[in-house]
């Protein structure tokens, strides 16, 4: 499995390599899509939910931390520095910037990958509502979630860029 021109080349490799390749690709895509904006633009709310481009990046930090550092790694959310609820993970603080969140995202990915590297695909964690879940299931879930959020980010960024070009003309 390799990246060709920034895109994931899938076709050979074991199950673990394929899952980790897609997880890595969607993490990168979400970060890169959002980083194409200014901080002010990335804070813009275009939908009635808490979803903003910058909020999606902050939520991606929450996803990797909650699943891998906390559920599989044993840290509490408080110890890991993430909020208790999913909704709170989209909430932006005054000090949040694209630069700080991108750096935090990269550090979070590295910490999550350290946990993942120690586990087999059949390793399990316990989720309070869903029960026992395998690493294989959680990786697949995170791939789906990050792909979905990268799509959300892409649409929001496209709208923001369109509005930017209208104000320039």
TrEMBL record:
Protein name in the entry: Uncharacterized protein DUF664
InterPro entries cross-referenced by the UniProt entry: DinB/YfiT-like, MST-like
Top-rank taxon, per record: Bacteria
């Amino acid at each position: 499995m390799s990246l060709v021109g920034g895109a994931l080349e899938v076709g050979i490799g074991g199950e673990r390599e394929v899952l980790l390749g897609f997880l890595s690709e969607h993490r990168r895509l979400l970060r890169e899509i959002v980083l194409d904006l200014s901080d002010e633009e990335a804070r813009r709310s275009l939908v009635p939910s808490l979803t903003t481009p910058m909020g999606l990046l902050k939520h991606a930090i929450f996803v990797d931390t909650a699943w891998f550092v906390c559920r599989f790694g044993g840290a509490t959310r408080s110890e890991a520095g993430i909020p208790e609820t999913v909704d709170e993970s989209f909430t932006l603080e005054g000090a949040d910037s694209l630069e700080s969140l991108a750096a935090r995202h990269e550090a979070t990915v590295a910490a999550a990958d350290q946990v993942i590297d120690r586990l087999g695909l059949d390793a399990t964690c316990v989720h309070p509502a869903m029960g026992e879940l395998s690493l294989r299931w959680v990786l697949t879930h995170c791939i789906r979630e990050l792909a979905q959020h990268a799509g959300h980010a892409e649409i929001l960024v496209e709208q923001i860029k369109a509005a930017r070009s209208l104000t320039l003309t």
